[in-house]
Design brief:
The protein is an alpha/beta fold. The protein is built from ten helices and four strands, in the order H-H-E-H-E-H-E-H-E-H-H-H-H-H. Helix 3 (57-67) links the parallel strand 1 (45-48) and strand 2 (72-77).
């Protein structure tokens, strides 16, 4: 179990430990600790928050699966943006659950993932399906979008990335087209809502 919020972590541990055939063998507070504890105890299923301090959830998942390819990992988070979901699944998570679900769904999902199946919360599946077929943003476009979210002008954005203002405008036009939005403000709002860019 890996979650940086003590109340959430302790609540989940309590829910799981109430099952007669389940026990939490380790609880981590950040992504690096999750990797270290996984190496030490090799759990049947790991439940990991998407946005962890030190090392984020998707990176921790990739490290764990690189070392232990058969591992079963479920993401449990409040973040339901399509980019969040895609990031977790591409990293190798077998399940994606939202913290708004009931305890029974968590247990059912863990059992299903342990049996070799995938489990994606219905709300997350709907959010993911809304953006199927869209052209993915490049790494550079995401960098530009992150600076747009920070409120930087084209001039300051160009200086930060070491490119011309004309190149910035070209990137922004491609971003607006790919995200199917009309302006920078809408792009910034969607970027945060969808989990493309995080606000610290």
């Amino acid at each position: 179990m890996a979650d940086d919020q003590p109340v959430v972590r302790e609540g989940l541990v309590s829910i799981i430990n109430r099952q007669p055939d389940m026990a939490v063998v380790a609880a981590a507070t950040d992504g690096r600790q999750a990797i270290e504890l996984f190496r030490a105890v090799r759990p049947d299923v790991a439940v990991i928050e998407l946005r962890l301090p030190v090392v984020d959830g998707p990176h921790a998942i990739r490290v764990i699966l690189a070392e232990h390819p058969a591992s079963r990992i479920v993401v449990l988070t409040r973040h339901d943006g399509d980019a969040d979901i895609r990031s977790a699944l591409e990293a190798g998570a077998r399940g994606y659950l939202l913290k708004s679900m009931g305890p029974g769904e968590l247990i059912q999902a863990m059992r299903s993932v342990l049996a070799g199946h995938r489990w994606i919360a219905p709300a997350a599946a709907v959010r993911l399906s809304e953006h199927i077929g869209e052209t993915a943003l490049t790494k550079r476009e995401i960098e530009v979008l992150r600076l747009v979210v920070e409120g930087r002008s084209n001039k300051r954005l160009a200086a930060a990335l070491g490119i011309t203002e004309g190149t910035v405008k070209a990137h922004i036009n491609r971003i607006l087209s790919k995200m199917q939005v009309g302006d920078r403000t809408e792009a910034a709002t969607q970027a945060i809502r969808r989990g493309i860019v995080y606000l610290d």
